[in-house]
Amino acid sequence: MHRPSAATEPQPEEEHHPTDAVFQRAAEIFRLMSTPIRVKIISTLCHGEKNVTEILSEIDTTQPNLSQHLNMLYQAQVLDKERRGNQIFYRINNYDVVALCRTLCSQIASESVSGQR
How many domains, in total, are found in the chain? Predict the structure, then answer.
């Protein structure tokens, strides 16, 4: 049986209580990050801004599919973009989402290595 690590064990409630708007935004972020390709895009852009061709070289998908996912992340303000000539460069705009993805992926990877999953 999987036992949560100290970092994932429930903590006593803090003084502040999140509002419904906070829970709504959290649900939106989880929904947005619910596909592996979007998590891969975030991971790829953690190393700096890249254009679509550079991102495609790191993620196995088609250009139209990648563009659709990039646009969703841009519309959600997770990514920012800048046109330079005929290329569009994407970069991280919301580092809270990056921290969330890194924490979750690290936890899953450590559980896989230790055989907990």
Answer: 1
Task: Report yes or no: 63 and 56 within 8 Å, Cβ to Cβ.
Answer: yes
90: CATH: 1.10.10.10
Cα 49-55-57 angle, rounded to 5 deg? 135
Residue 14's φ and ψ, nearest 5 degrees, are -85, 175
Q: What sign for the dihedral angle of Cα 35, 117, 101, 59?
A: negative
Instruction: Please tell me the pTM assigned to this model.
Output: 0.74
The pair phi, psi for residue 73, each rounded to 5°, is -70, -35
Is residue 14 domain-resident?
no
If one compares 13 and 104, the residue with the highest pLDDT of the two is 104
